[in-house]
## 1
Amino acid sequence: MIKSIAVAIAGLVLAGSLARAAEDWQPDPAMLAAAKKDGEALFYTPLIADQIVRPLVKAFESRVPGVRIQFVRTDAVGTIVRMINEAQAGKVQSDVWCITDGLTPLLQRGLVAEFEAPSAKGLPPALVDPRKHWVAVGLAIRSLAYNTDIVPKAQAPKSYQDLLDPRWKAKMAWNPKSMSGAYGFIGTVIKGMGEERGMAYLRALAKQNVVPLPISIRAVLDRVIAGEYAIGLEMNNTHAAVSAALGAPVQWVPLDPVSETVHIAGLTKSGPHPNAGRLFVDFMVSRAGQEVFRESNYVPMHPDVPPKYPELRPEQGGYKAVVYNPEEIDADLDRWIKIYEDIFR
């Protein structure tokens, strides 16, 4: 009974905060009128449907009656392949997309439209593409998480060097083939330590037999929480914070530096509903949209909208981050993949 009341109260608080946020968003009248003529837009995204996509769509549609947002959820690779195949068939369907990597193939094929989102005005330059191809909508910050039932706090790793302790051999896990896993870890180590020292460190870490789990990082964290592994590498800090708040035996530790990737959104070239798509992106970028990210336990990108747990942002948590946008990831990803194949397999 008490739990049901708490859930109901939380729901009312969330609804109230989102309603207040929506009141703050005043879309450009001309853009709003054009979007209503489109009537709908199709959104391709790897974001979690129930956690963030449906709340975003609901908040937007409640503010813009007459414009419907439909979505297809798939991973970044699936989104890119789908967009390329549709363009080759001459049947472009998506209007809006969101990814964390893989932008280069879309740019090379001319599948990305230029646009401006009025709500992005004044954002830090790192969050808005100067070529007008994308704008950031959220952040993902990853590092180490450990099971507090298995690892006493005093023994928990606090640095990359601590991971080389023999006690952790075969007790650490990561996703082996993802930027939010081994590839991101490799890139951050090299960028943080430098080429020579970073490569030497990775060779030493390979001797620790990190367990490859080809599942989502959320699923990797769940295996850590279940006690199957003591430590998860490249774990999302919001996942760990939410689980810990619910009583799970998990603690996130920011190694120096952590990995920070940017969720970006953009418009599809020749999309059938460009005006509705642009309005939806503008909403996601606005403080109102960023409040939805916050209340859905994502890290908002907007400097004026703090995360639900402020320490999850490096600036507030007092730790350093290697920040990647999709184009930077694309430039180095093949090399990080080769390093993984050469050293860790």
## 2
Amino acid sequence: MSKSPTVCEHCRVVSEKKFGGLSGAVFVAAAALIFAPRSSAQFGATSSGSGTSGSVISALGNRNQYSWTESFDGSANSDGQVMALDSSVGYSFGSHTLVTTGLPVYFVHATIVSATGTSATNSFTALGDFHGLVQLSFPGPVINFKTQLTGTAPTGSTSDGISTGHATFDWTNRWDRGMNQWTPFFEIGLANSLPDTFIYRRPFASFGMLSHFQAGTEYQVLDWLGVAVSGFDVAPWGSQTIESRVAGKGAGSSGGHGPPFNNGQKITGGSSLTADNGFATEVDLSPGKADFTLGYSRSTHYSLNIFSFGLTVNMRDLLRRSSL
């Protein structure tokens, strides 16, 4: 299954009616990628979306090799849409170790509603934080274990809510076991920022200590079709700061209605700012062209219904095959 990673409901209709002109144009580009030849699209990339199958990816094969992946993903709810095109390069040391670095470009479209009821559109494109990760995979006869350390440098804009302005880290550990077509899994992570692609693409960037948990199961229906369901929880502690991506630059309070990221561009407070819990579902399609995921998640803490998508293409393998 795709990672953390993974908008459905007839993507063309959503992009035209709900996503606006900017997002609609990006969706056209994503659709074009689907028809590129498939080449182990998940290798060396963490695609984003619902993330039901986990934020830790596999290092495939037993040989040392470079990787280059392009992933495009996004999430939409009633407050707006946040999408990102992430370019990553890396190196796999055998079957156990993977190192990658990348830089995302964000596409944000949101409608801002003030306390007086007036609305305005907030749309922009911006570079995100430079990121790097080291992942170790340890397959076992009973339990498979993966551990991944991810770090970011504050290269993105804080005024747009793309970055917190701080260096961040996330250490995630995953245990799973394959039983015929079923793969139950459990993840636990420690971070000083809520991972941007944990379950869904976040409408804000956060800074503050927290743990995140996810448990569920995957089911491989066919060679090219898989599904997953999971429950998740985010447990922060201490002071938390969020930089909203949907409230707009210089936005003040909207009267305290709705999720905190709608009530101002920058808010500092207690653990409830970034606390979250709910459930997620995901469908993973690998029809021989690319790896494409569709997801739905329900945030009970924020009372949000989120639709997500993810598309990942292994550019290294694609170019290698096209040159043959």
## 3
Amino acid sequence: MTKRSSLWIGAAAVLALSACSGIELDRTSGMTPTGPEFNRSLFAEYISLSRIEYNEGDYGNSDAFAIRARSIGQGTMVEPEEVSARKIPANRTQELATYRGRLVNALRGGARERLPRDAAHAQAMFDCWLEEEEEGNQPVDLAACRTGFLDALAKIEGAPAAQPAPAPQAETITILFDFNKATLNAAANTEINRVVARIRALNAKSVVLEGHADRSGADAYNMGLSQSRVAAVRQALQRAGVNVRFDETALGETRPIVPTPDGAREARNRAVTVRIVP
């Protein structure tokens, strides 16, 4: 072999070595991932692992982690690495496969959305654990990755599922009237204002109005009086800008709010009950 040929082969070997010497980290670390917080956190986790491997001179694994980060940066969903993708000792595969299954279940069960940073750390530490198990020569690093994974897994498995907000309940407000009157007094107008505020706060779809009278007059007269009271309340709400469906019922003295003997005057029975239905 001539000296010139030897020099050419040596240069080619250097170029080949540089091509697999962590170049993926340089290509990827400048990316700005978008999307959910989990994606952004997982991208940062993989870049961190890639940099650690690069600084240790493990350029193959540095590239592998950087490529996973780049896939995330390009919008691809990256799952935890398969145990079968690594050359893991046979006596270690069962534990790793079990933990991978738990991790995947937690991630798909909503951990990415509930605890995105912890979920991303759990995935990255699992992949780190796999890589260290395959190498098998850095027990301190292996223990650190395994512990980091188990701690993060405990957090995302123990996080309670987000509960839907309770549906708003119907509310009832009672508006009282003076004896033998169907006009709103000052106290009644105050209650009208409260009804309007609650209708808007609950974004109500309908309002149920039930008119009552006490038992001191004739049945037919009290029925008409309760009907007039319902109309007074509805009109006041409409003047205040309420635009919902009204369900109106006049009950007269047939269903008193407070039971009394016939002919008895009872202020609490001279009323319209307003049920606000969200």
